[in-house]
Amino acid sequence: MRSLVIWLVVSITAAFTPSIAWAHSETGAAAGFSHGFLHPLTGADHMLAMIAVGILAYQIGGRALWLVPISFLLFMVAGGALGITGANIPHVELGIALSVIILGAAIALGIAAPLIVTMSVVGIFAIFHGHAHGAEMPGSSNALGYALGFVSATALLHLGGIGIGMLIGRAGARHEPTLVRAAGGLMTVAGLGILSGAL
């Protein structure tokens, strides 16, 4: 399973590298994809939350390894559609900052909530992230290409989080819980920094 995840991360990254490099020279759907792909990578709040989803999924294990990230992706698409169409969701930035704080705290405290609860909480936060992506879509971008771009980048960040969890796991079962929880604690602190405007 570990080698499969590593292979997927490397393969997907290699496949998308040309699109990232050509972000300023493409037009239409390709340009939309490039803009969408880069959007989650330009904010620490988005990156931390999406990596946290991957670490949390790894920490829970079992079916959560794929159900938690998929829940985030599906709800993020719904939020993105709302953002693209101009629908208003109050307190989006607050929701994004809280996602980093709460997901980081869940990792740090090793909270073992039922899988459906975890998927629901992750899904609610994903709506805020998706809305931000959609609302900030450049007017010249192709909506479908843009959405495929930010979904692809998010999936890679989730895989990155799972990969971080696996790398920590390789440090040894004795130290794994401490290291994973320390990572969650750092995310919570970063989330508080984002919420206060310090980051």
TrEMBL record:
Q: What is the lineage of its organism?
A: Bacteria, Pseudomonadati, Pseudomonadota, Alphaproteobacteria, Hyphomicrobiales
Q: Which organism is it from?
A: Phyllobacterium phragmitis
Question: What InterPro entries does this protein's entry cite?
Answer: HupE_UreJ
Transmembrane stretches in the record are 64-84, 96-128, 143-167, 179-198
Which domain of life does the UniProt lineage start with? Bacteria
Q: What is the name listed in the Swiss-Prot or TrEMBL entry for this protein?
A: Urease accessory protein
UniProt KW keywords? Membrane, Signal, Transmembrane, Transmembrane helix
What single Pfam family name could you report for this chain, choosing any that match? HupE_UreJ
Hey, what's the signal peptide range on this chain? 1-23
